Amino acid sequence: MSTLATSEFVPLSEVERELRRQRQSLQGTEQVAAQLVRMSNLVIFCQSQESAQAVAALVPEVVTAHPARVLLLIGEPSGEGSEVTAQVCVRARPAGSHQLACAEQVLLRAAGAAVNRLPFAVRSLMIGDLPTNLWWASSQPPPLAGPLLYDLSEQAQQIMYDSMGWPEPARGVAATASWLEQVEGGDGCWRVASDLNWRRLKYWRRLLTQVLDPTSTPGAVESITEVQIEHGPHAVIQAWEIVSWLASRLDWSVETGRVEPGREIAWRFTAPHGDLRVRVQRLEQGPTEVRRVRIACRLDDKPGALSLVADDGRRLTGVLEGTDAAPRTVTVPPHTATELIARQLSDRQRDPVFRESMAVAQVLAQSLLD
Amino acid sequence: MAIPAQPVRKDNRLSQGTHKSLLPQPCVLVIFGGDGDLSWRKLLPAIYNLNVAGVLPSHFAVVCYGLPSSGEAPSNPDEYIRGRARDGITRFSRQPPTDDNWDDYARALFYVPGSFNDSRAYGQLKAKLEAVDQQFGVPHSRVYYLAVPPQFVPPCVSHLRDAGLVSAADEPTAFTRVIVEKPIGRDLESAREVIRAVDQAFAEGQTYRIDHYLGKETVQNLLVLRFANSIFEPLWNEKHIDHVQITVAEDEGITQYDPATGEPTGSRVGYYEGVGALRDMVQNHMLQLLCIVAMEPPSSLAPDIVRDAKSGVLRCLRPMTRADVKQVVVRGQYIEGEAQGRRVPSYRSEVRDFYSSRKQPVPAASVHSNTDTFVALRLFVDNWRWAGVPFYLRTGKRLPKRASEVAIQFKSVPQVLFNANPEVPLEPTVLSLRVQPEEGLSMRIASKLPGPKVRIYPVKMEFNYSSSFGDASPEAYERLLLDVMAGDATLFLRRDAVETAWRFVTPILECWEQERVLNLPEYQCGTWGPVEADRLIEADGRRWRSL
Prior knowledge:
The structure holds two protein chains of two kinds.
Chain A: E1 3-6, H1 15-30, E2 33-36, E3 40-46, H2 49-65, E4 68-76, E5 85-94, E6 99-111, H3 118-125, E7 132-136, H4 147-152, E8 158-161, H5 169-185, E9 192-195, H6 196-200, H7 202-211, E10 226-231, H8 236-250, E11 253-260, E12 264-271, E13 274-282, E14 290-299, E15 302-310, E16 315-320, E17 328-331, H9 337-346, H10 352-369
Helix pairs in contact in A: 2-9, 5-10, 8-10
Chain B: E1 27-32, H1 37-52, E2 60-66, H2 77-92, H3 99-106, E3 109-113, H4 119-136, E4 142-146, H5 153-162, E5 176-180, H6 188-199, E6 207-209, H7 217-227, E7 241-249, E8 255-257, E9 264-267, H8 269-272, H9 276-294, H10 303-315, H11 322-328, E10 329-335, E11 337-339, E12 342-344, H12 347-357, H13 364-367, E13 374-380, E14 390-396, E15 403-410, E16 430-436, E17 440-448, E18 456-464, H14 465-469, H15 476-486, H16 495-515, E19 522-524, H17 531-538
Parallel strand pairs in B: 1-2, 1-4, 2-3, 4-5, 5-6, 7-14, 10-19
Antiparallel strand pairs in B: 7-15, 8-9, 10-13, 11-12, 13-14, 15-16, 16-17, 17-18
Helix pairs in contact in B: 1-2, 1-3, 1-15, 5-6, 6-16, 9-10, 9-16, 10-16
């Protein structure tokens, strides 16, 4: 983004006029055509000034990859206030030699009772005939947010959230799994809910799928006795989603669950081939992601193990322990947070595999809550 | 680890629910002509980009096969091809090589030097493939990419078969697929020979005849545009469309020059001379574009259903008589002119220079070469939908710019109301789909100029892939290689499509062959082709679009 035009506070009724004015001012300074580029309305909800600042820093890159009219909302229910205030800015980047591609952002702030007025402001500022994405940029799981989420999502085709770092994983997973049923199954509107954490697991799922392929490791899937997953701080739900995905695809039924807070979660499953154990272990430090998956199974009709490791954040490597076979690798493109978000915004397809995994994740959560 | 000899169940429950096209299967890609131009410029960089994107299978390796372009046997073939690949990636890849990505790519890249006709070398290839399978855990699955001139296709496939390197189409654990590059033959008869030769080793379901134009985003978007938007399809017929223009213009000639020194850096004379624009561009790329523009809605996106719909268009092409060829087909050859700000020589002198640089005599047929570097033609699709709608195709080298597009020109509105003044007719609505360089589409519509009077002015609505979607589009070869690994043949040519396209083109070639003209119509480098091409379309009261 080469150029940024910003404003002081403007009344809600003047937002569109101010956006036009800023766009025209860009055109004037650059002597080129400023073209509005929008793939969607992007409504972002934050619950504090701090989280909004962090998100606002990502927005310029997000809209480079996914041009959108951004409505950035800060709703602080515990604060004081009765008005919704607005600030606008227009960002432009070169698009070819004679054009600027412009993206608009409106920052809406509300505190106290005025938070409930945010959905009204959003409705008035959305552009018709464009898909609407709601990015729930809050550490609170969406189903625990109450009617505000419901109001904000009424026009949304996609609700995007991030389960990374949820404070109460089991409670959050259990509530979200039920909520997903309503979101995607509900009121006749086509809608999808997406967890960025699930998207982060794409390459793990790809490598697991390939190393456990029956043509490469025949009999491995049918002989798994133990799965051990290590993750960095705040990434327990990522590891959880791997477990629920494996369990849903491979027909494992959970028998018991046990949690040692901050250290380990363990489940016992019954699989078609027998019992197996899964342990999810937290590493004290390191990146916030799954670091290693070790699968004990039979390889070449002998006890063995597959060990999959996140090498350096750039590559996942799978090795057959105890053999000299070349490692199997999957490159993990260096996705920044903004790329991850932008890709998810453009991806509006429902993912039945995610839904099925979350249904199992709910059972896993229940085994711990019980 | 050892691969079991007994077939095992191929179902991978972890992959269920994921779209087939997103699942490239573990395999070894074997590139015939692995040290050649196509591999250097396109294929090895495409594989590098796929690896960086993390979409290649985890169990994957590349083995290049063929004689080294240097003519000398390298002491360390694997290191040799890695050096060559790195050079190609540095020059041509959309992403430059970085150390960590390069290491991961290079460790799975190998080279077996050998002649396409040397059966012993195929034994060495087989031994290498078995070692690579073992090392990378690949279940004997192979994709053979025949990046070789058409005359080498038959020996390559027969040696592969004889060496036991082709598995049956119904083999449950390991697949074998072959990618055949264009040109497939020089005419209908030779194309059939190539197809027959491939058939002897590979089933049709294992054969992927590639036309890289079909991997381009805009070309695929044409299907989406037509069949995912309800406004276009009702207008997509002879009632509303005046004509269609398909242009594939290249600013390059047959020889590439260093922009700084003006010295030649490469030449495609060896391939192009005697082949020409009709065979090189029209028979494949342009007729395929035409198919996508003109096809009926397929009932599903299953590969054979889509390919049936495309073949249906080719079968409706009105055959050309000799008189037609004279009247509606124009060929030309470039003569000295300007390109990219400097003088460039004629085609014939580039041919002479090519042989002279190799210290070889110019072959008799090339002394006064009549190879077409430009073709323009008008054709008709004789079916209910397109009855009477002319399709104008033009392609050429050394034209003013590199630009490929499909333009749909709608019929003019009646000459009443805003179009009542015959002196200043309204520009008709045009929908134009740019294939390259800036992929996207635009629509020209009439609009009222601001002011008290009704003054109408044409305006252009633009959609540009790079500015609208941010991400750079992957190269066509990247998409197509992944499709082959995933077993998705939708974007590849079936044998009947190849034969039908040749059946349409061959009478033109035969007519030219019989005419034996001394000189083709000429055009200066840096112009839009010979004047005859303008006359061809102007005779119908239309004009070529200015691009």
